[in-house]
């Protein structure tokens, strides 16, 4: 597997984001009313297997100290292989390189596997923030990144 940077406009990233949003709507029964938004200010990483992007995740700066993980997704046929965990580590490294001290994220209460991944990777629950405040299915997490020596 290869993890590489891709632009937000990359067709494979766009297809993964659409698949992620469709799966989220199916998982929550369409209750959260999410709309697919293309964030052009997100730096995307793609997990590539056999020349095909099978997973993605993005990093968006909230401020100088904080980056937010966006659109973490691995196609169902590729789950259980550690791809999401490797993407998460690569996104944390990208955040560190961009000078962020903290990485935060939002996920849904109806996604226990995602919550398990984040908790087992050192993310701690935080209060729901920003655009997620009014969504009763949102849960948010944050992780302090190591300080450079």
UniProtKB/TrEMBL annotation:
A GO MF term: acyltransferase activity, transferring groups other than amino-acyl groups
Claim: Transferase is one of the keywords in the record: yes
Residues in N-acetyltransferase domain copies: 3-146
Pfam families: Acetyltransf_1
CDD domains: NAT_SF
Keywords recorded for this protein, A-Z: Acyltransferase, Transferase
PANTHER family: AMINOALKYLPHOSPHONATE N-ACETYLTRANSFERASE-RELATED, AMINOALKYLPHOSPHONATE N-ACETYLTRANSFERASE-RELATED-RELATED
Name of the featured protein: Acetyltransferase (GNAT) family protein
Organism this protein belongs to: Micromonospora tulbaghiae
Lineage: Bacteria, Bacillati, Actinomycetota, Actinomycetes, Micromonosporales
